[in-house]
Amino acid sequence: MARAELVGSKLIVFNVDDARKIFAEGFFGKPLGVKKPKGTDISSPLELSLIEGMYLLERGIITVGFRGKTLGISEFAEIAKKKIEEFTNLYIVYKELRDAGFIVRSGLKYGSDFAVYRLRPGLEHAPYLVKVILFNKEIDPGDLVGWGRLSHSVRKKLILAIIYPGKEVNYIMFKWFKP
Fold first, then answer.
1. CATH number, domain at 110?
2. Is residue 158 a contact partner of residue 148, using CB atoms and an 8 Å limit?
3. Residues acting as catalytic residues
4. Is pTM beyond 0.90 here?
């Protein structure tokens, strides 16, 4: 099992062999100092988001160290919730997409929650952008148009992941068409 250290709002896998294995087996995280890795044979520590870390921690792939202590799942979740406002809802969608076989990355640079790949980064551009929304949250029409325009301008389909009270997620995909 690989060890990741909680540093600020990221996890770092310092052991390069462990980092390489985690990256190669699911394209989790980013190798430190490498903007766009070409292959899976990385040679630097791996930086994981807290959401990726939770997924790997739940599966027993990593342990998480923090201030000389090993964190359990619930302890790690509490810290993550303090650092990321919508951590629980984001994680529900992340986990569901990952379990379905997609590669899920941050969509921050696209104004969304996630960029989602069918294959992997480097082999394709992410075909989907995902925005996570609670079922009872009002959506400003201007926001919806903005998300749609942005996704269209970067040639990606916009997906709203709507979370219901029972934690069920429904997905709505938007696609541009010419009448």
1. 3.40.1350.10
2. yes
3. 117, 125, 156
4. yes
